[in-house]
Amino acid sequence: MRNLKRVLSLALASVMLLGMMVIGAGAADKTAADLTDMDKVTNKEAVSVMVDLGIIEGTSTDLTDIDTNWAEGYIKYCYANGIISGDGQGHFFPTQGVTVVQAAKMLLVALGYDAEASKYQNNSMWSVNIMKDAQVAGLLNGVEGTANDTLTRDGAAQMIFNTLNAKTVTPKFQYDMGVQYLSEYVVSTTTLGYQTYGMVKVTATVTGITADGKATLTNVEPKDATTLVNEKLPVTPDMVGNAVNLYVKGTLNSDGTLNKAEKLISTSLVIGTTNVLGTSTDGTALATLTDKVSTNKKFIAELEEDTSKVSYFVNGESKSAEDAAAAVKTGVIVELIDTNSNGKADLVKLTVKEVKTVVGEVKTKTENDVLMVAIPGVTSANTTLTYVKASELSGYEGLAKDDVVLTVKVGNMTYIEKAASVEGVVTGIKGDTSKTYKVDGVYYAVSALEGASNSGYEGNDFKNTYTFYLDNGNNIVKAVKVTEETVTKTAVVLQYGQISSTAIGSSFVAQAQLLFEDGTVEVVEMSKLNGTELTSDNFTTTTGEVGTGVFVDYSVDKNGKYELTKVESAEDVATDKGITSNTAKFDGTNVANANTIFLVKKGTGSNVTYTAYKGIANVPSVAKADLKGGQVVSKDSVATYVYIVADKFTGDVSAEKYTYIISAKPETVSDGNNGVDYVYSAIVDGEKTTLTADTDKLFTASGLYTYQTTDGVVTKAESKQDALKKGITTISGGTLVVGADDAAYLYTDDTVFYAIDEKAGTVESVSASNISADKDVEVFVITAEKSDNNTASVVFVITPAEG
């Protein structure tokens, strides 16, 4: 009788809490998958189990007046049995939301708590008493909100689920002077869920997927439920390696162990707490990821000592350790999982995806009442429409032409997800064969997944914007140029030419050599010049009127021929003061700014070079004597284009300095003027820094160099490796003796010693007392200026990498 009352109390409490969610009367004929808003449910396990038990169906009625009379019978029964008590003034407020404390009272009564004896009513502390007991019973686990907050249906479902997993109680009363009082609650050995539904919780680890998409389960607890639950419930590939929870109907022994598992209650798996020790997507070998040595920065976790107990899965399929190791490459998701909670990985999960591009419109059709889907580029290798069952695809909804997707096939199911992407301009490139590309300050490697390629990126393009599509490890799988280079509308005419012949069938061709905004020079074919259609008869006159070394606007017709028009508003560059870099009045007369394009012709004869600079901060200075002319095109009194003709630049050439190049493999970056620079890791003045060079031929190997910069860029360098002396014989009392020839130097307190570790790439400024005699080090000594006694100013002490 007591158990019947608890069943009824739970059912009625469920009705009151879940409101208009239909309450089931028996076994479920719906599953959580039938709930159209399941993706919005926070407490998925709670809702899933209650749907599976038939407590809720998730269907709303269409009765418009249900809020006023639907619960009348329930309210009366619950009031009579102490499940509810109203507000103490004759009101229940059935149309208002249920608060957390009100829900807790209903469910505590369902567990067997006596509302009157526990002072849940007719007591000023009723709320505190309820919340205290609810906390102890575990009813509030996973429920958000305070006592008086309105409970959401999601929260209500979680509280009922907690109640099902809570142990029931029986009040024990005693009498004092004939007055009954509650002495204690006797806690049962089983839960309300077990008593009402025979519900037994089962935990397991998903370690595989069958061909028909069912979960292979290991580490099943209780073990006697293994046969009943294994390979019975649907699973997705992301669940492989995860701990999961499910429920069966069964009977328990007196000690709480499972006596018999009768049937499955759950229709789906719910992910529990899974101990993923670490994840890798950069292609690091499994042997490295599991090698625990102090120098291994890629280490994640050790494998189980008994390697026979380590399982390997690739896309949900069991593999040998060797096959799994061979499958690791950049972009593959490697997860090391501890399923038995001993801190070591006993399951290695690899997800190997492919990269594909949707190349046509996604089509659907029905064949024999079966929905079929065709995704050009995904279900087929090209635009051909190859239809597959929609039930064998996941994630195809919403796909459109040109979408880049990642796919993985597990069993008969293909799972599709749109690739994430970043958009920006590449500002740096590192590496030789395995390059990384810097976009918005972040370096991205290139994925090695099948179908991945970075071929859409044009080498050393530091100007255009690209969309880089990424795999799950943020490695590039595809590059697509977003913005083509802006077509230059203004250029400088450098010279003219013509091709003409009296031969039959020949035609006249007018040519112009143009200097474009990006600094490139090209010979083009002209159709018109200043509105005149060019012929052999008017070519000389027309070109003479326009002249050379002047700005022209141009357009290109469908045949690729150029129509040039002289910019009549252009003015001459002032030549009486020269060009001053980083100055608004760059020539003393005209004004430029950071957006001004400077096109510079430098040199004479065969030594002429053309370079484009953007902004006054970047244009080089030119002395008055070296400035030969030019033109300025202005808008609103500010130069938009400037053409400068100079014999040479002034240039800020630095004094010769010493550097130690740590690595001769530079990072390639944009020089800001449509070219590239090379950035080297270096040691200068005892500090680790970088040096930028205009060529990758100056520093051909690591080591000691002298160098000079022009406008901050290294333009001259000379190796000093041959001048290094091997070994220190003596360093004490102000005397330093080095090398096989016993070269002797004096040192003082002002002498600077730099200790460089070639292998580590580190430098440290030390005193002479920190240096000792060593036959293996390499030494370079710079003597003080005007020194006639070989006094050392700076001493480099280098520990070779092989030393």
TrEMBL record:
<keyword id="KW-0677">Repeat</keyword>
<keyword id="KW-0732">Signal</keyword>
<protein>
    <recommendedName>
        <fullName>SLH domain-containing protein</fullName>
    </recommendedName>
</protein>
<dbReference type="Pfam" id="PF00395">
    <property type="entry name" value="SLH"/>
</dbReference>
<feature type="signal peptide">
    <location>
        <begin position="1"/>
        <end position="27"/>
    </location>
</feature>
<dbReference type="InterPro" id="IPR001119">
    <property type="entry name" value="SLH_dom"/>
</dbReference>
<feature type="domain" description="SLH">
    <location>
        <begin position="58"/>
        <end position="121"/>
    </location>
</feature>
